[in-house]
Amino acid sequence: MHYDVILVYPPIMMQYKASDPPFGVMYLGRALQDAGYDVAILDLNVLRWPKERVEAYFRENTASVIGFSGMTTVYYYIKWLSGLLKELQPQARLIGGGSFATPCPELVLRHLPLDAVVVGEGEPAIVPLVEALRTGGSLAGLPNVAWLDNGTFVQGPAARIADLDTVPFPGYDLVDMDYYLHSTGKRPSLMHYCELRGIPLSSVSNYFIMFSRRGCPFKCSFCYRNFGNKVTVHSVDYVIAHIKYVRERFGVNNIAFYDETFNANRKWLFEFCERTRKELPDTYYWVGGARADLLDREVVAEMHNSNFYEVSIGVESFDDRILKEMGKGLTSRMLLDALTLLKQYHMAPSCMGLLYGFPGDDEESLRKTVETTRQLGIPGYFQLPLPFPGTKLYKRLRSEGRLQDEEGFLLTLRDAMTMDLFVNLSRYPDAELTRMVAEANAQVQNVGQG
User: Fold this and answer.
1) Pairing between strand 62-69 and 93-97?
2) Nearest Cα to 143, choosing from 167, 130, 160, 131?
3) Cut 0.90: pTM above it
4) Intervals of CATH 3.80.30.20 along the chain
5) What is the location of CATH 3.40.50.280 in the chain?
6) CA–CA distance, 279 with 378 (Å, rounded to integer)
7) Mean pLDDT for the chain?
8) What is the topology classification, in CATH, of domain 2-155?
9) Which of 256-260, 351-355, 417-421 has the lowest mean pLDDT?
10) How far is Cα 357 from Cα 322, in angstroms, rounded to an integer?
């Protein structure tokens, strides 16, 4: 079968089942559909086909344009598959995008047989890029597009979508939503919430992932922002319409907001809470990313009264010196106050993400974080900081000459969790650092659980 466009989403973390839909390619697929293109998404993260079957698929299915998207950890897979497709379908034009390409477009273009990559938001670029590649048109001037022109790296003008409400809902019909509806589950915090309020757990669906905004204004040294530091926001009308749509289509009433900073706009949050109490009284919410210094009693109480059952915040450390080194713009007191407040309202994170192994970390910073975690009674999990491309940590290693083979580094990230590999940024030998983190995890992973 021949398609105008096939969008490929590689497998991630083969030792774990897929749980999150590939929203990046789902949004792009919908944009291409709306423009009249015949589109398929090959969601290899669900299919988990062996390489022989992937090859067989592309012997049977061709496309004018084939696109790849994914995290940095799938670079190795895209390198393999793009090379294979150059042999199987030499007529196809190959493109890439997402966080494997956005922070280092020139590196990707010089090492992979791609005709172009999309940098940042894909919606402004995908339709004109596909049209240019299909018709042999020029790429000059296309927003968010980078390519090599006779060996010279060229990048078009950067663009952000000013009105996020112009973005249509993701292409849910392009992936196996039945799989994703059954792949998530119900968090312990929801079970506790339902028990406290006498709500039958069976009346609440598995959580369904959604986004209300893009971008993050903060600049943590270990974090890469695919959409940059400018925050754009869907209107409350749009988000409520989206929730009503997925409720009707998929029968879900448990929404997980995967935004980087859901509570960045206080006025928006209060309007959303007021509207949902009236229009969606039996829908429940988990926030996957919130900012601690923007949570006060009035905000938390409003969320509590609007069916929010868990709010996760970025913690990383309870040592002020290390928080400053990370560039978080937070103090341990801010974190402690926010988490204590969330506990009072039974909305605390199920598990706090913690980091240890920064250059300034020592026994004292580890002790503070462990002791504060245990005092709070909220489980935590330590990981080692990994300098992903585009982060300040990555740039620091490059400037220090500690990371000279960039593509080699990308290839080492293949299908790995942060704890499975790291660049040692700390003052300790590798064995000592991993021992300290393992011992710390043994102290914080099960606190508050009987």
Assistant:
1) parallel
2) 160
3) yes
4) 164-444
5) 2-155
6) 33
7) 93
8) Rossmann fold (3.40.50)
9) 417-421
10) 10
| Tens-place pLDDT, residues 316-362 | 999 999 999 999 999 999 999 999 999 999 999 999 999 999 999 99
User: What DSSP element (H or E) covers 26?
Assistant: helix 23-34
Q: Are strands 380-383 and 93-97 parallel, antiparallel or unpaired?
A: unpaired
Cα–Cα distance between 173 and 229 in angstroms, integer?
Answer: 31
Cα(100)–Cα(10) distance, integer angstroms? 11
Reported as a pLDDT band with limits 50, 70 and 90, residue 14 is: confident
Mean pLDDT across 283-292: 95
Its sign, for the CA torsion 432, 438, 441, 442, is: negative
Strands (E), 91-169: 93-97, 116-118, 145-149, 152-155
pLDDT in tens, 132-144: 999 999 999 999 9
Q: Does domain 164-444 have CATH number 3.80.30.20?
A: yes
Structural contact between residues 314 and 289, judged by C-beta atoms closer than 8 angstroms: yes
Residue 103 tokens, joined: 């922070």
How many CB atoms lie under 10 A from the CB of residue 445?
Answer: 14
User: What DSSP string runs through 306-368?
Assistant: TTEEEEEE--B-S-HHHHHHHT----HHHHHHHHHHHHHTT---SSEEEE---TT--HHHHHH
Phi, psi angles (nearest 5°) of residue 96 = -135, 165
